[in-house]
Amino acid sequence: HFPDVFPPPESYQSGDDSSSSWSVQVFRSIDDASVIGFPVYPKAAFALGLHKRKDVTIDRSIHAGYIEAVRRARRFIYIENQYFFGSCFAWSEDRDCGCSNLVPIEIALKIASKIRAGERFCAYVVTPMWPEGKPESDTVQTILHWNRMTMEMMYRIIGSAINEAGMEGKASVCDYLNFYCLGNREVKRAEEYKPLKLPEVGCNYWRAQMNRRAPIYVHSKLMI
Fold first, then answer.
1. Helices (H), 118-169
2. Which of 105, 108, 142, 148 could connect to 157 by a Cys-Cys bridge, CB 3.0–4.6 Å?
């Protein structure tokens, strides 16, 4: 029996006034291509909390929910997402690329405020090493560039907060914000399948057989 791993035999429900209660929300994203009856005109869309952009009506409740959760976070933020880029208006370049969501800069500003307050806080972001598609394609390379610009912007804000707090040389930006790409490594086993024909040297199959490691793709959209 492992009391720290397995839950107690009986469920427990905390009261609404309990400071230890967890709030769980499930969101979905939709636009006027996936639902009937979305308003056509911007004013009507705005009245319903929707967003009108490029003749498309969008439900942005996920964006609003993420921002609210970031602002309410007290000790840490954990994110898994297939993509992680945004707040391009604060990048060092490509500020007009259209990646305008506020989640990255909200996280960076949250961490900066905690540093100034002398409180411990950390954010963990898990994404795939590269998104779906060929890594060398223009689309994937553009997304990776946006990822880099986003990370650079966040670390710049956190680094400035560290310096302003007089913690230069005593703290690192990685004490507060970390990005992870998951991978899998395999050990060669005697009983494993052996191809009847050896793969051509230099091809992807050959590299997989030789290196025995591959990225683990992250497709979830999760924040704790």
1. 138-164
2. 108
